[in-house]
Amino acid sequence: MKQGDNFRHQKQLVKAPLVYSNVLLDYWQAMKNLGVGVAKCPGRKHFLVAMDYPVSSGY
């Protein structure tokens, strides 16, 4: 591989910010009943969805 080829490949790389977000689900038991712990959604804004241990939100 020549140095020019390497530069051309690096120009094709796209940088995107790494964003974490938390979402409160009203009916998370549906995912638990299906046995879903992690779901991958390539090409979407949230490409990885992972369930965490339930916590009390005070309600």
Q: What do you see in this structure?
A:
This protein has helices at 3-11, 29-34, and strands spanning 38-40, 48-50. The chain has a two-stranded antiparallel ribbon. It has one domain (16-59). The chain is an alpha+beta fold and 59 residues long. The protein contains two helices and two strands, in the order ααββ. The longest helix is centred in the N-terminal third of the chain and has 9 residues, at 3-11. β1 and β2 (48-50) form a beta hairpin.
Count up the domains.
Answer: 1
Order of helices and strands: HHEE
C-alpha geometry:
elongated
Mean pLDDT: 77
Q: What is the count of helical runs? A: 2
Number of strands: 2
Distance between the termini: 61 Å
* Largest sheet, spatial ordering of strands: 1-2
Which stretches are poorly predicted, pLDDT < 50 over at least 5 residues? none
Question: C-alpha Rg, in Å?
Answer: 19 Å
Instruction: Report the sheet with the most strands, covering strand number, pairing sense and barrel closure.
Output: 2 strands, antiparallel
Helix/strand structural class: alpha+beta
Strand content: 5-15%
Q: Helix fraction?
A: 25-40%
Question: In short, what is this structure?
Answer:
The protein has 59 residues and is of the alpha+beta class. Helices cover 25% and strands 10% of the residues.
Topology:
Elements lengths: L2 H9 L17 H6 L3 E3 L7 E3 L9
Antiparallel strand pairs: 1-2
Pick out its properties:
59 residues; alpha+beta; two-stranded antiparallel sheet; 2 helices; 10% strand; elongated
